[in-house]
Amino acid sequence: MSSIETQFLNIKAHHAQYSAINPKTTLKGSASDKIVFITGASQGIGQATAVAFAQAGAKAVYITARSEKALEETRTRVKEANPETQCAYTVCDVTNEEQVKASIEDCATQFGGIDVADSNAGYLDRWQKIGESDTTSWWNTWEVNLKGTYYLIRYTLPYLIESAQKHSARGSTGGHLILVSSIGAQLLTPTASDYQTSKHAINRLCVR
Fold it and tell me: Which of 63, 74, 78, 130 has minimal CB crowding within 10 Å?
């Protein structure tokens, strides 16, 4: 690892859910009446996020990923977490513009809008020096991590703006956009040129 002293953020790391972010206690009801759209929700962070929003009282959680079987598992977990939370899914590859657009439109049609959009889908393949890297895999990392994020922003933005305006009139908040990055964005690690640069780009995209 190089330049870690100047790149690493001095923040506290957590490896388990803590009180301030517990959706069943501290954040209970915080997602009430919210419609949540999540990419990459078939496993890991995306699946846990879908369950957490259900526990926090979301009206509906719409999930997407490439595996229908895994999406069905996530939907089951969402319903177990909160039977009152509606859940629907679409099989969607975030690098496919038409699929992303169609899934977002389907969410809005089924549930009446989108209040929270979470770009969670990500890709990490092999760790190789750039001179030995597989060119297709290297660029696919950028396609998933950055282009997929761009597509989500591009097509959810009108709904998020509408949500923000609607909730503001009620004295609440809406129109939330979540882009999932990584501590890798702050590191310079040999063999991670595709993953770490794409995550760094997402951090820059957040402030635009």
Answer: 130
Quickly list DSSP for 158-192: HHHHHHHHHHHHTTS---EEEE---GGGG-B-TT-
If you count DSSP H runs as helices and E runs as strands, how many of each does the chain have, helices first?
7, 5
Whether 66 contacts 43, CB under 8 Å: no
User: Which one of the listed residues 34, 62, 151, 199 is annotated catalytic?
Assistant: 199
199 is catalytic: yes
Annotated catalytic residue 12 = no
Query: Which residue has 């989108």 as its token pair?
Result: 114
pTM (two decimals): 0.92
Strand-by-strand arrangement of the 176-179 sheet: 86-91, 60-65, 35-39, 116-119, 176-179
* Token pair of 1 as six digits: 């690892």
Burial state string for 84-110 with b = 16 or more CB within 10 A and e = fewer than 16: ebbbbbbebbbbbeebbbebbebbbee
pLDDT digits (tens, 9 = 90+) for 81-118: 999 999 999 999 999 999 999 999 999 999 999 999 99
For 157-171, b/e burial (b = at least 16 CB within 10 A) is eebbebbbeebeeee
Closest alpha carbon to 67 in 99, 37, 90, 36? 90
